[in-house]
Structure to design on (776 residues):
C-alpha cells in the first residue's frame, strides 16, 4: 500500500502545464453541463414544520407565486402526520419538481414529547430509500425521484418571549439531518421593536442550546456579501397572503386590516423578499449540495458502519470493500458452523435422553399392563355378579314403582268421577250455585283426606276449585259469601268444572248438563247444538291425543266439528300438559287462536307418557270471552318473585304458598274473605298471583264444556276422568258430514274395544245424531 502511494506522488510531480496553440473546444464543458441539467430538470424538497394555523400553506403559495392545492388540516389528531405533495413547476425553460412536506397536527397534542419523532423518522426514511437505490447492482439514480429533504422551514409562533421547548428539542434533533431555516410566522402581529428583540432572543437560545441552523455560504465571492448580510437577518420575519391589492399600477400580494395594508413583497413590512431571495434565487443549489454531501453522507457513513463496513481495519490500515465482504462472510460461516455443531450436539444429547426415557416408560407400561390385565379379570368377574344383582333389583324396583305410581292416579280417578256425579246431582231447579260450589270443594277435601292416611307428608286436596258456570257464562264462576249468588232455573245449561290431586298427581274434569232434560224432554235448538258440538269435539280430540300428533292438528279438528254445528270454539282457551304439582305445563293445545295467539303458542308434538287436561269450550255466539262485573274468586300462585310492601299481603301470600302451592284456589278457603280480597290485589299487581277471569258470551247465547284427563300410553290415549254422556236427550238438526271426521269418530278411544265400537258407530252413519264411545 505504501508503494502505491509513492507511485501516485511521482505521477503528481510529473504533471506539466502546457499552452494550446489553437482552439480545441473543451471550454464548452460548462455549457454542456448546464444543458444536461436543464434537460433533466431539478428536484427541490421543502419540509415545513410548525403548529397548525401559522400559515405554512399560504407562505408556500406566496414563495412560488402560485396556488397549491391543499386541504385544511384537522386539529384533533392523536399524533403528528406528514403529508407530501409533489408539483411540476416550470419557469422559462427550467423545470423544477417541487415536493412540499407538511407536518399535520404538529404541536396540537397535550403530550408533545414525541412530536419530533415522526419528522426524524420521515427524513431518515428518505435517506434510507436513496441509500438502498445506491446499493443496488442495477441502479438508475438519473431517473430516481430523490425525496431527500433539502431544507426545513421551521415556523416559529410570534406569540411568547422566545422559543418553546418543543422548538428547541425538534431543531436539535434535526440540525445534523437537514438544513434548518427558522422563520417567524405571521410577523405582522408583532411590532418592529419587539420583533428585533424576539429575533435576538431566538438566536441566543439557539446558540445556548447548541442548535446549528443553516448558514448561507460566504465562500463564493459572487454571493459572499449578500449571504453574509442576510445571515444577520435570520430568523426571517415573514408574512404570506393569497389576496392581491392594487398598489399603484400593480397588483401586490397583501393583507388588509382596518388600520392599514401589509404588503408581502415590501421589505419595509416583512422579510418575505429576503427569504425568497436566499431560499430560491441564491442558495437553492447550495442546499441541494449540502444535503447530499453533508447530511446524507453522515447518514450513509453511520448506516454502513452499522452493517459492519469500514475504510480501515483494527490496525487502522485501509481495507477495500471486497476485503470487508470476505471478512464478514468468513465470520458468518464460522458462526454458522459453530451453531450447527452446537445444535448437532444438543440434538444427539436429547435423542439419547429421550431414548432412555422411552425405555423406562416402556418398562413401566409393561408392568402396568400386566397389573391392569390381572385387575381387569378380577373386576370383570365382580361386575358380572353386580350386573346380575342390579338387573334383579331394577325389575323389583320398577314393579314397586309402577304399583306405587298407579295408586294416587287410581284414587284421583275414582275421586274425580265420584265427586263430579254428586255435584251434578245437586244441580236442580232452585239450587244455589254458591252452595253447590262450597259442597263440591268440601267433598273434594273430605274424599282426598280418606286415602293414604299413613303417608303423613303426602300432599293432597283440591287441584281446581268447583265452578258452576250457567248459560252464557263460559267459565270460572264460583261466588264467595260476599258476592252475589245465582239460583238455578229450569232449562239452564250448567257447566261443572273441578279437580283433585294426590301427591301432586292431578285429575280435572268438566261436564255440561241442561236442568230438567230427559229422554222424554229432549234438549233441542241451539242448546243441543252447543252441547253436541262440545261433546263430539272432545271425543275427536281424545282420539287424536296420542304420541306423534301435533297440537295444532287437534286445534283444527275441534274447529271443523264446531263449524258443522254452527258453533265457535272459545277463542284462546288452552288445554295444558299436566305435571306433578303443576296444572299448567309447558305444552298447550289452543282453541280458535287469533293471529297474536298463534305467534305466542308454538306447535308441539305429543309424546308417550305425557298427561293432558283436554278442555273443550264451545259457544253458540262469536266464541269470544268477555269480562263483566263479576268479581274473580279463583287464583293461582305463579313462580315470579317480589318483596311485598303490605304486611297483610305478605301473610296472605305465605298462607297461599303453604296451603295451595302452585294449585288454583278459591278465596273462600281463607277465614277473612275481606282481607283476602284486599291482599290478593297487591299480589296480582306484581304478578305473584294470577287470576282466573270469569268470562261471558253475549246474552242469549250458550256455552258448553267437556274436560277430562288423558294419559298418553304407547298403545293410545287412556282417559281417566269423566262420566258417560247421555246422547239420547239431545236432538239437533246438524250432523258431521266430513268423511275424515266421521272416520275419526267411528274409531274407538280404547284400542282393546276398537272392533266392537266400530260396528256400533257404523250403525249411526247418515243419522242426525252420531253415537260414540260413551265411556270414553
Amino acid at each position: 500500500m505504501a508503494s502505491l502511494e509513492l507511485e501516485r506522488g511521482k505521477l503528481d510531480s510529473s504533471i506539466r502545464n502546457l499552452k494550446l496553440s489553437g482552439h480545441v473546444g473543451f471550454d464548452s464543458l460548462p455549457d454542456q453541463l448546464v444543458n444536461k441539467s436543464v434537460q433533466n430538470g431539478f428536484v427541490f424538497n421543502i419540509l415545513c414544520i410548525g403548529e397548525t394555523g401559522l400559515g405554512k400553506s399560504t407562505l408556500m403559495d406566496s414563495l412560488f407565486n402560485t396556488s397549491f392545492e391543499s386541504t385544511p388540516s384537522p386539529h384533533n389528531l392523536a399524533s403528528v402526520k406528514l403529508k407530501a405533495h409533489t408539483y411540476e413547476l416550470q419557469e422559462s425553460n427550467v423545470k423544477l419538481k417541487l415536493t412540499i412536506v407538511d407536518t399535520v397536527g404538529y404541536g396540537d397534542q397535550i403530550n408533545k414529547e414525541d412530536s419530533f419523532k415522526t419528522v426524524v423518522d420521515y427524513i431518515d426514511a428518505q435517506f434510507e430509500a436513496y441509500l438502498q437505490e445506491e446499493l443496488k447492482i442495477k441502479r438508475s439514480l438519473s431517473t430516481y425521484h430523490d425525496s431527500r429533504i433539502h431544507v426545513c422551514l421551521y415556523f416559529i409562533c410570534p406569540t411568547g418571549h422566545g422559543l418553546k421547548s418543543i422548538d428547541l428539542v425538534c431543531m436539535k434533533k434535526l440540525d445534523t439531518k437537514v438544513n434548518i431555516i427558522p422563520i417567524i410566522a405571521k410577523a405582522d402581529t408583532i411590532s418592529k421593536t419587539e420583533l428585533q428583540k424576539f429575533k435576538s432572543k431566538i438566536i441566543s437560545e439557539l446558540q445556548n442550546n447548541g442548535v446549528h441552523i443553516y448558514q448561507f455560504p460566504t465562500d463564493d465571492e459572487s454571493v459572499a456579501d449578500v449571504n453574509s448580510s442576510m445571515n444577520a437577518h435570520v430568523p426571517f420575519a415573514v408574512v404570506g397572503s393569497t389576496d392581491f391589492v392594487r398598489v399603484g399600477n400593480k397588483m401586490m400580494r397583501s393583507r388588509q386590516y382596518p388600520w392599514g395594508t401589509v404588503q408581502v413583497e415590501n421589505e419595509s413590512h416583512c422579510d418575505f423578499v429576503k427569504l425568497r431571495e436566499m431560499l430560491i434565487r441564491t442558495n437553492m443549489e447550495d442546499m441541494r449540495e449540502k444535503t447530499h454531501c453533508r447530511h446524507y453522507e453522515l447518514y450513509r457513513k453511520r448506516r454502513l458502519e452499522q452493517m459492519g463496513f469500514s475504510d480501515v481495519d483494527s490496525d487502522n490500515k485501509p481495507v477495500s470493500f471486497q476485503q470487508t465482504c470476505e471478512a464478514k462472510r468468513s465470520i458468518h460461516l464460522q458462526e454458522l458452523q459453530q451453531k450447527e455443531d452446537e445444535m448437532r450436539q444438543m440434538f444427539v444429547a436429547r435423542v439419547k435422553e429421550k431414548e432412555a426415557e422411552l425405555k423406562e416408560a416402556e418398562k413401566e407400561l409393561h408392568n402396568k399392563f400386566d397389573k391392569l390385565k390381572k385387575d381387569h379379570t378380577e373386576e370383570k368377574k365382580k361386575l358380572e355378579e353386580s350386573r346380575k344383582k342390579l338387573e334383579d333389583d331394577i325389575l323389583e324396583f320398577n314393579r314397586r314403582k309402577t304399583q306405587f305410581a298407579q295408586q294416587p292416579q287410581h284414587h284421583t280417578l275414582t275421586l274425580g268421577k265420584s265427586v263430579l256425579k254428586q255435584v251434578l246431582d245437586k244441580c236442580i231447579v232452585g239450587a244455589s250455585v254458591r252452595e253447590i260450589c262450597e259442597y263440591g270443594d268440601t267433598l273434594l277435601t273430605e274424599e282426598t283426606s280418606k286415602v293414604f292416611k299413613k303417608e303423613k307428608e303426602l300432599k293432597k286436596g283440591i287441584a281446581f276449585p268447583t265452578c258452576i258456570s250457567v248459560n252464557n257464562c263460559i267459565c270460572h264462576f264460583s261466588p264467595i259469601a260476599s258476592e252475589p249468588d245465582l239460583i238455578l232455573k229450569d232449562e239452564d245449561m250448567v257447566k261443572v268444572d273441578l279437580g283433585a290431586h294426590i301427591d301432586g298427581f292431578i285429575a280435572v274434569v268438566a261436564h255440561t248438563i241442561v236442568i230438567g232434560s230427559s229422554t222424554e224432554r229432549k234438549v233441542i235448538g241451539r242448546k243441543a247444538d252447543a252441547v253436541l258440538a262440545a261433546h263430539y269435539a272432545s271425543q275427536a280430540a281424545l282420539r287424536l291425543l296420542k304420541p306423534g300428533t301435533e297440537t295444532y292438528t287437534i286445534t283444527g279438528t275441534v274447529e271443523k266439528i264446531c263449524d258443522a254445528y254452527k258453533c265457535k270454539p272459545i277463542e284462546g282457551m288452552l288445554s295444558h300438559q299436566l305435571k306433578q304439582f303443576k296444572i299448567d305445563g309447558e305444552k298447550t293445545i289452543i282453541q280458535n287462536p287469533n293471529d297474536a295467539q298463534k305467534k305466542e303458542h308454538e306447535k308441539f308434538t305429543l309424546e308417550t307418557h305425557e298427561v293432558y287436561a283436554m278442555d273443550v269450550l264451545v259457544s253458540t255466539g262469536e266464541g269470544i270471552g268477555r269480562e263483566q262485573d263479576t268479581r274473580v274468586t279463583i287464583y293461582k300462585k305463579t313462580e315470579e318473585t317480589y318483596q311485598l310492601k303490605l304486611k297483610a299481603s305478605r301473610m296472605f301470600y305465605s298462607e297461599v304458598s303453604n296451603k295451595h302451592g302452585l294449585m288454583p284456589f278459591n278465596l273462600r278457603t281463607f277465614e277473612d274473605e275481606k282481607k283476602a280480597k284486599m291482599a290478593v290485589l297487591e299480589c296480582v299487581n306484581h304478578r305473584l298471583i294470577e287470576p282466573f277471569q270469569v268470562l261471558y258470551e253475549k246474552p242469549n247465547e250458550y256455552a258448553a264444556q267437556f274436560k277430562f284427563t288423558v294419559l298418553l300410553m304407547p298403545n293410545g290415549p287412556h282417559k281417566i276422568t269423566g262420566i258417560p254422556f247421555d246422547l239420547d236427550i239431545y236432538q239437533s238438526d246438524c250432523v258431521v258430514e266430513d268423511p275424515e271426521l266421521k272416520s275419526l269418530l267411528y274409531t274407538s278411544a280404547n284400542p282393546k274395544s276398537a272392533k266392537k265400537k266400530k260396528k256400533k258407530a257404523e250403525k249411526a252413519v247418515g243419522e242426525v245424531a252420531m253415537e260414540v264411545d260413551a265411556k270414553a
User: Anything to note?
Assistant: The chain has 18 helices and 24 strands. Confidence is low (pLDDT under 50) at residues 1-7, 754-776. Residues 262 and 555 are 93 Å apart (CA to CA).
